[in-house]
Amino acid sequence: MSQGQRTGRLRLAGRLLLRDWKSGELRVLLAALVIAVAALTAVAFLTERIRQAVDQRVAASLAADLRLQAGTPLSEDYLAQAENAGLRWAKITSMPSVVFAGDRSSLASVTAATEAYPLRGRLKVSQNLLAEPVETDAIPAPGEVWAAPSLLARLGVDVGAVMELGRSELRISGVLSFRPDEGFNFADLAPTLLINDADLAATALVQPGSRVSYRQLFAGPASDVEAFKAQLRESKKTTERLRDIRSAGPQIQSAADRAARFLNLASLVSVLLSAVAVAMAARRYSHRHRDRVALMKCLGASQVDVTRTHSLQLIMLALAGGVVGIAIGYGGQQLLVWLLRDFLGQGLPLPGFAPVWLGLVTAACMLGGFALPDLMQMGRTPPLRVLRQDIDAPPLRYGLGLLAALLAILLLLYWIVRDTLLVTAVSIGTALTFAILALAGWLLVRSLQGLRGAGGASWRYGLANLARRGRESVVQVVAFGLGIMVLLLLTLVREDLMSSWQASLPDNAPNRFMINIQPQEVAPIREFLLAKGINPERFTPMIRARMTAINGADVNQMEFADPRGARWARRESNLSFAAEPQSENTLLEGRWWSADSEAMEVSVEQDFASEMGLNLGDELSFDIAGESLSVTVTSFRSVAWDSFRPNFFMMMSPAALRDRPATYINSIYLPPGSERVSLDLMREYPSVTVIDLDAILGQVRDVMDKAALAVQAVFFFTLLAGLAVLWAAVNATRDERAFESAMLRSPGATRRRVLISVAMEFLAIGALAGLLATLGATLAGYLLATEVYGLEYRFNLAVTLLGPLAGALFVGAAGLLATRQVIGTPPVQVLRSA
Asked: Using alpha carbons only, what angle is made at residue 43 by residues 818 and 428, rounded to the nearest 5 degrees?
């Protein structure tokens, strides 16, 4: 084929596409395509930005690209090797210590850093407690310190004051509002005190047996960091921990990936419904243009020419729908970012081009899988159809249309999740869901036929239309029912499940958590609380330890079946001891020790034990402040974590931890109006931290609300896809509806009566969709409450009534708008063209 022929075919395809657009033939097809692309790309843009932000945040949480950490001093040779590799480095030494200002004191987490700190992220410092913090790359000068606001508040001082740290006196020169690598350690929430590494020796804080953490930070180009990491893994000691971006935040990365998959699969529902609309619109388009194909063949065009011309039209349409859908998707993700602004933060990184490619692939898959088969069949229309309208195009062989649709959906699914097993599970689950919904929709449509005699002529005619177009009616009921069901279910999760969980808590459930209580403070704090009318119940000891071996095998060298087990084994552990099991604990297997037992035993929480692969009789070894301890696993137990009382994964016999250095924790209930007690307690005992659980629960509810709103925004595309299905269904029966309207109006029926009958048809479809949605959402909500969360299900009458009512009004209004122009055509014009 010459260049001129290719150009001519391209121009012909463009002219035909433009003419079809002006005539309205392609609007449904393009609308469904845009909805599908917009739904997927909105989520893709958002999840890519979140993933990039997570990577940046994890790097900042290390204050570096690579971090080496140990409980003993690290070799300076590592720093020399880093310089030779072209990397920047910094050193941090951290330890807990009591600081003094005047006659007041407080526990602080002291961090001594070298000049280059932090290598990633920035510090935020203000000039006094009331000033706005500003970002900085500097650290305190020698002889100066920067202190966290809570530390200054406890000491009753501000910038300019002098504090005692060990054997040194240092001047406070700034308020440290934020440092990128500060962790949230529930067992050690002491406020930060940042000093210059040059002042560390003079404080004399580092002594034999001191609890000190040594860190070396490295940063540089990714390739250099990877090469140095491989070198460091070979040379480091087994007691030294090496962390990078991937190992530093596995829980965050995993949570982000799960959220991305969920939202992508949620948007896929919109794609599936849009695909139905594309298939319906393509079928009508191919039927209406078979005469044109026959005429083109009469004028000399071959089947190949016709197929190529219409394929070019599809490519142009895919590009147009892809570009418009991508633009709308980008705007949609901006809305999602706004809805999630409170816990996503500001300044998310800009997305890359991956979502753009996804949008174009979606458009190509949609048209290739659901429109191309009909257009290929249209291209096989014989020329004789110009003379004989009863001659049609022969069908495609071997079910190629269905095969193309399945391949398109599977390709799209795999592109999204990149997991063959998950693709298979989702495909089977989706097919079963649609089959169940279709069966339920068909039964509901059939059940309405018994009510045809319950109303007037418009009611009977509307229900007759519903029965006549049974397949289209079921498709619309399923499409709208699915969209409404998801929105109702999310409403139930947001409101009812959270309320049911809170209602399941006792009225006096603890709402304050106290930590860092020193042994000598237990009795005075008990008296303090009793004097305020508050019963502190039990003070629970807590000992920090690190697991070193399981059955004699070094945990750093062991391979765990569950990655979470490896993380638990290699991190610091919180241990406790008790003579009797706590009321929130249920013994599942094994035996509890006697109160006077001198055996070294441990009881392990069941999920924790499963993740670590522990069995009864296993021997666990720990390092506690430089001393070794070995205990035997004698029982497994379950823990009611939602009791908000102190509980532990590993609870030991009193003999195992007797005389070990411990702090105490406790939880109490403060009735409304007693908030001042927390402040007075922390002022009286500065080392104690009181955590407000009510505030945390409020944050949980806020996060749930915002997340549910974001998911509802994604499923809003499902309703749009349902509208596209309705539009395609009305468009597919456009000629039939126009003829029916003309036949009714010719004998004397008014346009108003015809409109009422059509309204009845769509009101019935909407009510059935709403009823189906209500039944599905109620059943899913019941299963979630009783089987997943273990809560008592609370029937929601408002949601039950809202489903059918909202469905009837929404679909009824949409149906009237879609058919108004068809019914408005004068009967004479319709009958003349028939």
From this structure: 80
Which residues lie below 8 Å from residue 445, measured CB to CB, with a gap of 6+?
466, 467, 470, 473, 474, 477, 768
Angle at the Cα of 42 (from 36 to 46), degrees rounded to 5? 150
The Cα 691–Cα 667 span in angstroms is 9
User: Among the residues of 685-750, which ranges form H helices?
Assistant: 693-732, 734-745
The answer for residues whose C-beta is within 8 angstroms of residue 366's C-beta and 6 or more apart is 32, 33, 36, 37, 271, 274, 275, 278, 318, 408
Please write the tens of the pLDDT for every residue from 135-180: 898 999 999 999 988 888 888 888 999 999 888 999 999 999 888 8
Cβ-proximal residues to 662 (8 Å cutoff; 6+ apart), any chain: 519, 541, 542, 543
CA–CA gap between residue 134 and residue 361 (Å, rounded):
45
| Number of other CB atoms surrounding residue 365 within 10 Å | 24
Q: Is 253 exposed, middle or buried (0-12, 13-18, 19+ CB in 10 A)?
A: middle
Cβ pair 195, 111 in contact under 8 A? yes
DSSP state of 787: I
Helix (H) or strand (E) holding 292: helix 290-298
DSSP 8-class letter at 449: G
Query: Where on the phi/psi map is residue 399: left (φ > 0), alpha (ψ -120 to 50), or beta?
Result: left
Rounded Cα distance, 275 and 18, in Å: 23
pLDDT class of 712 with cuts at 50, 70, 90: low
Q: For residue 289, which of 367, 376, 365, 399 has the smallest C-alpha distance?
A: 376
Does residue 408 contact residue 313 with C-beta atoms inside 8 Å?
A: no
Distance CA(503)–CA(692), nearest Å, equals 19
Residues 571 and 612 sit within 8 Å (Cβ to Cβ): no
pLDDT exceeds cutoff 80 at 768: yes
For residue 187, pLDDT beyond 50: no
Structure tokens at 743: 């036949």
Assess contact for 254 and 106: CB atoms under 8 A.
no
Burial 269-295 (b: 16+ CB within 10 A, else e): bbbbbbbbbbbbbbbbbbbebbeebbe
Q: How far apart are CA 486 and CA 505, in angstroms?
A: 28
For tokens 């079963």, the residue is: 432
Distance CA 577, CA 656 (A): 8
Q: By C-alpha distance, which of 517, 509, 514, 528 is closest to 667?
A: 514
User: What digits encode the pLDDT tens for the residues 451-460?
Assistant: 555 556 666 7
Task: Pinpoint the alpha helices (H) of 127-182.
Answer: 149-155
Q: What would you measure as the largest C-alpha separation in the chain, in angstroms?
A: 107
CA 446, 452, 454, 459 torsion-angle sign: positive
Q: Are 655 and 598 in contact (CB under 8 A)?
A: yes
| Lowest-confidence segment of 40-44, 166-170, 490-494 by average pLDDT | 490-494
Q: What single string gives the DSSP state of each residue in 398-410?
A: GGHHHHHHHHHHH
Q: HSE-up of 123 (CA within 13 Å, CB side)?
A: 22
Query: Would you state the pLDDT for residue 290?
Result: 73
